[in-house]
Structure formats: structure tokens, C-alpha cells
Amino acid sequence: MQKRRPKRIHKMRGRRSAGYGFSAGHRASGQRGGKGMAGSKKHLYIKLVTENPRYFGKHGFKRPQKVVEEKTTMNIGQIDAMADRLVEMGVATTKGGRYRVDVSRLGVDKVLGAGKVTHKIDLIGVREISEAARTKVVEAGGTVDLPVDTE
Questions:
Q1: 75-107 b/e with 16+ CB inside 10 Å = b?
Q2: Which CATH number is 105's domain given?
Q3: Residue 91 domain flag
Q4: Pair (33, 89) in one structural domain
Q5: Are residue 105 and residue 47 in the same domain, yes or no?
Q6: What are the beta bridge partners of residue 98?
Q7: Is residue 139 domain-resident?
Q8: pLDDT for 129 beyond 80
Q9: 3-state SS record for the chain
Q10: What is the structure's pLDDT at 58?
Q11: Is there a domain that residue 28 lies in?
């Protein structure tokens, strides 16, 4: 009866590991644990989760476009800083040290409260305004004229 022996290596006989890497291994992808995504849900799971934690499952939420409402905003500090330029543009008027700014002509939907208010500003044509912006305008001696809702 014939003995079964492993196949004799004919190539790379002068190398210590016969081309299988620094330590014992194999030329194919067995030393790496598989090609591509092989083993990603088995023996390479921890590696995949640490390198790419969002790989498994769905993440996040996308709002329907009919619900999304785009608003153009501007801070009250920007309006205050641009007060003289707005008068030159014809968007605002000045009378007795007070600036009367038509916010609707600027194309702004909502006025936000960031920045300082150093002038007396009367805002007209405002669709929406934050509480911080309203407080800053009133404390500086200005007024806010909101349109009356006809709903």
C-alpha cells in the first residue's frame, strides 16, 4: 500500500518560509483570514465594527421633502452693522437717529438674535423673529412690527 505524503514544494526552496511570510503561513488568502469581506460576520467581526461601526443596519432619518421648509435667516447684529449701507440701498430709511428697516425687501424670513444692537431700529415686514432678537431691539429703543395673521 502506498503512503500519502504532502506534495513536495519545488519553488522558493532557498527561503526560510518558502514565501509564506515572516512566520509560517500560506500564499493564498488563508493567512489574512479570507479575501474581501469574508469573515466580516464571523472571525473578523470585531475588526469590522471598530473600523466601520456604521456598516451594519440602517442609521439616521431623512425627512420627507414636503415637510422641509427652507427659511432665509439673518441675525439682528448683521442688520445693525449694515444699517447705513441699507439706507444707501433703499431698503431702510433714517429719521431722527432711528433706522426703519424693511426686512421683507432683504428677502429674510426670520430674524435671529445673535450680535449687538447699537442703533434704534424699527423692523417692519418681519415674518418671524426670535425672542432674543425682539428683546435686543426693544432694549435698544426700537420696535418690531409683525404682520397680523389672517388665519
A1: bbbbbbbbbeebeeeebbeeeeeebbbbbeebe
A2: 3.100.10.10
A3: yes
A4: no
A5: no
A6: 95, 120
A7: yes
A8: yes
A9: CCCCCCCCCCCCCCCCCCCCCCCCCCCCCCCCCCCCCCCCCCCCHHHHHHHCCCCCCCCCCCCCCCCCCCCCEEEHHHHHHCHHHHHHHCCEEEECCEEEEEHHHHCCCEEECCCCCCCEEEEECCCEECHHHHHHHHHCCCEECCCCCCC
A10: 81
A11: yes
Beta bridge partners of residue 110, listed in sequence order: 73, 128
- Cell numbers for 113, please give them: 438674535
Q: How far apart are CA 17 and CA 4, in angstroms?
A: 23
- The number of folded domains in the chain is 2
Both 55 and 78 in a single domain?
no
- Residue 105 sits in which domain range? 73-144
pLDDT tens per residue, range 5-30 = 887 767 766 666 666 666 655 556 77
Instruction: Spell out the residues 6+ positions from residue 83 whose beta carbon is closer than 8 angstroms to its own.
Output: 92, 94, 99, 101, 119, 121
- The answer to whether position 3 is within a domain reads no
Per-residue pLDDT, averaged over 29-40, amounts to 81
Confirm whether pTM is higher than 0.85.
no
